[in-house]
Amino acid sequence: MFNYKHITIIGCLIFCWGVLSPSPVIGKEYKQIPLAIQISSTVSDGKYGLEEIIYTVKEAGFKAVILTERDLMRWEYGIWPLRNVLKRKVENNSLFRFGIKRYLDKIEELKERNPDLMILNGIESAPYYYWKGAPLSEDFSIINWHKHFLTFGLKKYADYANLPVVGNLGALALPRKIKNIFYLWPLFLIGLGVWFLLHRKFDYRDAKGMQLAPYSSVHRITGIVLIIIGVLFVLENPRFVDYKFDQYSGDLKEIPYQNYINYVNSRGGMVFWAHPEAGNTQQENGITIETKPQPEDMLATSAYKGFAIFYEGYNKVGIPGGLWDKILLQYCRKERQLPAWAIGALAFDTEPNLKKNLEDLRNMVLVGEENQEEVLRALSKGKNYVIRGGQSNNFILEKFMVKSNQEQAEWSGELKISQPPSVAIKGNFLDGQARNVLIKLIRDGEVIQVFDTLTPFAIDYADNTTFPPGESYYRLEITGKGLHVITNPIFVVR
After folding, report:
1. Which of 201, 226, 302, 410 has the fewest Cβ atoms within 10 Å of its own Cβ atom?
2. Binning pLDDT at 50, 70 and 90, where does residue 101 land?
3. 273 shares its domain with 367
4. Are 417 and 348 members of one domain?
């Protein structure tokens, strides 16, 4: 018979099961993958060959690398009105010069030979440059040659071949309109030249009707000149079309860059500003090449994925209250459709020691599975943090989470709340040594709390500030000897 003794036993069993059984996992479990971004090889402007780069990246302990060759290293100046015919051209190694298909095949070969390393192909682009001044003048120069994008996630040959950058004329051609028929005038000139070429002094034929009159030398010279002029203008614009812009269009502000962003997005890729705070002035082949820092362009453009906070994107853009925070606040206010994510970009081409650079900067990418698609997906959603410094390969941020009402969001997620949230932070050095670190908790561009602590640390900070309804975000900045960590934001909606 079922009695109180049985009830007691069953109750004890239920209690023990509840206590001893594992707790359910709340949230998603991520694997952290060290990723190196922005290395170019001898395919374009780099110092090392692809095989040597892959070997060094693996030796430095990375699980993934994004190679970023320069797309088109070519500048041209032509004399009006035959700018594409009477021109000087300077061209260096680039992806286009090497051959896109040849390069993509080489990457696939490297993947097969190195299954323990995820090798992703990307590209570094200068969408636009323009000429300032006139030849032989003191201010004759190339502007914005070093204003670059990093592009990841393009998969097809055509995606690369049709990149809308100055010099890649086919990709910048506008659709033909009725007015384009007037661009056929050189063909009329050629036809007229042929008529003059065949013109005779008078009409005289024999009994069989064969023309015996001599050709007119004046008309023949005229015909040859007309044909030459016509052919030159056909070569000037062989497509008989207009172009969106070229290097003679002057300062077009953000237009060429937004055009590039839109193109890459339409092909399923993603665009990051490469070094928004970097300036450059140099002399090459007797030409001044000048690029000023361009952080404000991040405000003028939209729909890009993010920017490289290291090495040339922290002082004005990435600092608390900087331009990055302005962009994130615009997103929170629905003035911008997408936030901007921070990455670390090595910008390595000809520096003397690739291994040393790799030991100084890495991206830790949060993935569910270790494959190329997951890495790209993580970057597109900001599920990464950036580590710079001599301790970059020794530190791990185990947790960055915002919690409220039994709900949570982590690693660039979004959380809807009705009660004050708390922020959970956990980190450690892999060698187990206790080191002092300074943790800045940033909310909406302001440092709201500073934690001066030793590793390992586990912090749970309750943010009891009262806010009006709307969207906010939290992000972290962690510093210490040989350490500088930047996280992407977690958004909260009140």
Report:
1. 201
2. very high
3. yes
4. no
